[in-house]
Amino acid sequence: MTPAASTTFAVVFTLFVVAALVLGVVTLRFLVRQASASRARWLAGQAVGGPDDGPDDDEDEELTALVLAGGSTRGAIQIGMLQVLAEHGFVPDRIYGSSVGAINGVGFAVDPTREGVERMTQVWLRIRREDVYPQGRLHGPWLYLQQRDAVYANSGLRAIVEEGFPHERLEDAAVPVEVVATSLADGGEHWFTYGPAVDAVLASAAMPAIFPPVEIDGERYIDGGVVDNVPIQRAVDAGATRIVVLLCSPPLFQPPPSKRPVEGMVNALFIAIHARFVRDMAHLPDGVEVILCAGPEGTTREFDDFSTTERLIALGRAEASEVVRRYALGTIAYPAPPMPVPVMRLDADGAAADRRAGDRRAGDRRTDGTAEGVAGGPDAPQAGGPDAPQAGGPDAPQAGGPDAPQAGGPDAPRPPASGSAAAGPVTQPDPGT
Hints:
The protein is of the alpha/beta class. The protein has helices at residues 3-48, 55-60, 76-87, 100-110, 114-126, 129-132, 155-164, 197-204, 225-228, 232-237, 261-282, 309-327, and strands at residues 64-68, 94-98, 177-183, 189-192, 214-216, 219-222, 242-246, 289-293, 342-346, 352-356.
């Protein structure tokens, strides 16, 4: 072997030995760290629950999620539903919201108690159209022809949201909460799990063309309902085994006939939004229970109409009362049978008025032989809770004035509410509709 070859061999061999030593040291350090981490996890398990606790226990744990859908001013229905849930001690493990459901969901997550929901109720009852949609000198369809990205500023909505949120950040809520918005960068859904609560909610509720997009960390977002109006799939992906869904409308969407081109465009948008919910319901995995708490049809006329807020809250209470009773939600048993659900009618002026749901037979009588009263006019007492007097058939005296006798009572039998929202929640809509 020549001297040059010997020198080359010595250099290569030395480098090989050094590399082998370095590799051995790195491997040894990796094994030591892994052993230390494994020991730390074992000690933590011993301290929490003993040697029998393991990952299988977490996998078997039931997770209850609350999902709040979008629905504009019909979100007041969810307030009535949340009232009943809070009164019966229902506190979910996770909350997911979209659009107005994000507003109500974050408000409930911050304080899931009767007092917290009552604060939200008072905020909703104080809202007027001008608070959210201020009227200027330009009205009507001309508003949509302006050189701007939205008809209204979101300053009014921001003030309302700030009033209802005592905490500034999502991660400070008592219950983990997530809200969805639509990214204008790629059209995908973006989930906010931490950060400023008001900005996240405004982004999720930024209705296209109505409110401007909300910019967060350099990216612009619009209404989460565009991509996921009823985010049950997010709850499923998180491992939820029981999902309570608060809908602002019936679960089966039936678009009205279009009389104008713009109405056809709006119907097409609503059909596309609802299609995601139908698909998610049709492909629920085994072992996942979905409980729908749905609102009735035809209770508001316009997206900016807050005149029926009080009635919407009452409708939400009636629907949630039946759901709580049927599925035993919460920790407090339902105290009494639910009341019939009132529905809307149009009076001679086209304004919304209330009447009882379904037709009542003239022969409906109480056990003591007296007829139940009818709650039919704007002056009739509101049916808001389980202790309110029940009213019944068409032959009964009208309960319209302060001196009118109250009929019914918690012990009286009640006729079934035909066609009402409380007649039974839909747990699996037909995927073909």
